[in-house]
Amino acid sequence: MTCMQAGRVLQAYLDGETDDATVCRVAVHLADCRRCGPEARTYREIRNALARRSEPDPDAVERLRGFARGLLQHETQGEGEEQTPVA
Predict the structure, then answer these.
(1) pTM for this predicted structure
(2) Rounded distance, CA 56 to CA 71, Å?
(3) How much of the chain is helix, strand and coil, in % rounded to 5?
């Protein structure tokens, strides 16, 4: 799974809205990817803050925005998708 593919399904994955095959693929990618793993933790931090009805950490919000900008930049520039090695 590439970073771009993981980014496209990350929210659904974190919300438990993906099929078992996707869950496995995303979980492996997040465990191995130094870019997407931290972003998944950021999504969880923001979601948990919102569930507590408190303000999300501004740094977490900015990291999430940066991650999204990076995904969009790769897509619009046609640079190909990053691949993380599968263990």
Answers:
(1) 0.58
(2) 22
(3) 70, 0, 30
